[in-house]
Amino acid sequence: MKKLFVLLSALIIVSMLLTACGAPAAAPAKTSLTDLGGKKIVVAVENAYPPFNSIDATTNKGVGWDYDTVTEICKRLNCTVEFKQAAWDGIFPAMAAGEYDMLADGVTFTADRAKIVDFSTPYVTVSQVILVRADDNRTPEQLKADPKAKLSTQIGTSNEIAAKKYFTSNEVKSFEDFPAAVLAVISNDVDGCVIDIISAQGFIKDNAGKIKIGGEILAAGEQLAFAFPPKSTLKDAVNGALAAMVADGTMATLNKKWGLTK
Q1: 88: number of Cβ within 10 Å
Q2: Contact 43, 83 (CB under 8 A)
Q3: Which residues on neighbouring strands pair with residue 218, listed in sequence order?
Q4: pLDDT tens digits, residue range 65-98?
Q5: Is the per-residue pLDDT at 7 higher than 80?
Q6: 101 contact partners, CB below 8 Å, separation of at least 6
Q7: Could you give the domains of the chain?
Q8: Between the CA atoms of 41, 119, 167 and 133, what dihedral angle is there, to the nearest 10 degrees?
Q9: Rounded to 5°, angle at Cα 119 from 226 and 62
Q10: 209 CB-near residues (< 8 Å, 6+ apart)
Q11: What integer is the mean pLDDT of 172-199?
């Protein structure tokens, strides 16, 4: 699922300024967006992957980058959004079957996943890191060299693949979700958790003084994107909205608000 912060690659084509006989150049043409006519779209989220999505303990409502970004997308496309909590395990077959219109959950694009679902334009590129307890100063290399060291991660994710590829001689425990995998670190059940850097910072914020980033195991390169059922007509509309949000600075504002960028 879900490599240092990189903003969504801008794919906006800026209109050529028209000039004639010394007249002032015309303003750039606005991006044309799809009007979905008030259509409701059902968006799957885990509510367990901060800062992308989680449940606010005070309001008991879903919050995060996914909530703000998808809401803004629907504002521009004239649609309404219903966020629906879904378990990560089995989410891709459910998407392929059309149970949801869209998946917003810090999803890593992979060639295998692209065989069963469609992906939007990537919106951020991440690295894989190790979350460790705040008083543990071991590097990833030192953990790897310790045959007794145990690692956690979330089952069925690109993080799990990275963990098993890097820690070939260590036990890797895969949990149903990342809150459980991170809790295993805090409670000293494992030595570290393999997770992407953005979500690592989200969990650090929620567990101040308890955990920290111990190092990077995979450099920036994995791209996160929204996922859709195969041949979804919504994908192109969302890509258009994302492009417009990059062009007018809205994406930069949301990325900074939720810690995707500084």
Answers
A1: 22
A2: yes
A3: 128
A4: 999 999 999 999 999 999 999 999 999 999 999 9
A5: no
A6: 41, 42, 43, 228, 229, 232, 234
A7: 39-125+223-257 (3.40.190.10), 126-221 (3.40.190.10)
A8: -40
A9: 10
A10: 134
A11: 97
Residue type, 26: A
Sign of CA dihedral 97, 236, 50, 170: positive
116 CB-contact burial (10 Å; exposed 0-12 / middle 13-18 / buried 19+): middle
| Cis amide bond preceding 24, omega within 30 | no
Strands of the 53-55 sheet, one edge to the other:
48-49, 53-55, 62-63
Tens digit of pLDDT for each residue in 87-146? 999 999 999 999 999 999 999 999 999 999 999 999 999 999 999 999 999 999 999 999
Token pair, residue 124, equals: 């951020």
For position 71, what pLDDT does the model report? 98
The CA distance from 35 to 200, in Å, is 36
> Sign (positive/negative) of CA torsion 63, 68, 74, 75?
positive
170, two tokens: 């260590």
Q: How far apart are CA 198 and CA 97, in angstroms?
A: 29
Spell out a b/e string for 234-244, using b for 16 or more CB atoms within 10 Å of the CB, else e: bbebbbbbbbb
pLDDT of residue 1: 53
How many residues does the structure list for the chain?
262
